[in-house]
Amino acid sequence: MSEVRVPGRVPSPLVEIADERFSRHGVRLLLKRDDLIHPALVGNKWRKLVPSLEAAAGRPLVTFGGAWSNHLRATAAAGRLLGLETVGIVRGDELAGRELNPSLARCAADGMRLCFVDRSAYRGKAGPEGPARLLREAGAPPDAFVVPEGGSNGLAVRGCAALGEELRGLVDVAAVACGTGGTLAGMAAGLGPGQRALGVAVLKGGFLAGEVRRLQREAFGGPRGRWEVEERFHHGGFARVPAGLEAFARDFEDRHGLGVERVYVAKLLHALTVLAGEGAFPPGTRLAAVVTGRPFP
Ligand SMILES: *Cc1c(COP(=O)(O)O)cnc(C)c1O
């Protein structure tokens, strides 16, 4: 493997905050500030992508995402930082020929070549033929290193084990918002005995636990660590931010002076607040919320 230099600030800071919605129940809330690891490969995307950048060893990167994908932006930024060619296959052919939204404009400004595909072709990448056809149609370079949607390959999951390792001995429960579940799968594997991981699904559909098991098999050959998933806090689905959640996030920002990313982090913090209120954590619990990202732009 060639030397790939994308230094990040790890271990990321772990800071306790005072919030009576938790302290009232004897719970200590700590923020694991992964949002401070890297300015362009934000949060868990640094942990997930750096191992693939090393494995790609200078080859072009091809990956997939929706119109607001944090993963696409991180991949494009990595391409700029390392001088790699990047191709982003974007879900939704209706986006082609229109003005780019700010997220895709950032990808393009970082040098990513965007290729828009219709939703059924995009879904086909998970089918029996895999992404081969999409890659051909996108004109992806034949030697490209392909990173799956959301960045969750075995390398990413193993990279996220370090997140758990950084929390060993410091907390009782480590909670993270989940899209693909790759971060949860890795974090749970890295935690020590007596610790447990909690994943909050931001998509609806109930497939998260199965995905975490699959990703742990891919990364480690079998199950690792103690973890569970909460499916009650998706607020209607991916990227849905109903008024109640928006109000919760603004209030959290006012209380704690922290920019709350809406798609993932707001749902995590809201879920933990409700769970604490329900008495889900015994008094004395040290509860870490992983701040996996920050608001864009
Ligand atoms: C991508 C992302 C996640 C989800 O990570 P998975 O490993 O796909 O579960 C969580 N939070 C933020 C801010 C993200 O950008």
Which structural category fits the helices and strands?
A: alpha/beta
What oligomeric state best describes the polypeptide chains here?
single chain
String of helices and strands: EHEHEHEHEHHEHEHEHEHHE
- Counted beta strands: 10
Number of domains: 2
Distance between the termini: 34 Å
Poorly predicted regions are none
Q: Could you name the key traits of this structure?
A:
297 residues; 2 domains; six-stranded mixed β-sheet; four-stranded parallel β-sheet; 11 helices; globular
Provide an overview of this structure:
The chain has 297 residues and is of the alpha/beta class. The strands form two sheets. The protein has a six-stranded mixed beta sheet, with helices on both faces. It has a four-stranded parallel beta sheet with strand order 5-4-3-6. Helix 2 (44-56) crosses helix 3. The protein has eleven helices and ten strands. The chain is globular and about 55 Å long. The protein starts with 13 loop residues before the first strand and ends in a 7-residue tail after the last strand. Strand 4, helix 4 (102-109) and strand 5 (113-117) form a beta-alpha-beta unit.
Summary, kept brief:
This protein is α/β, with parallel strands linked by helices and 297 residues long. Helices cover 37% and strands 16% of the residues. The protein folds into 2 domains: 14-41 and 153-290, Rossmann fold (3-Layer(aba) Sandwich); 60-143, Rossmann fold (3-Layer(aba) Sandwich).
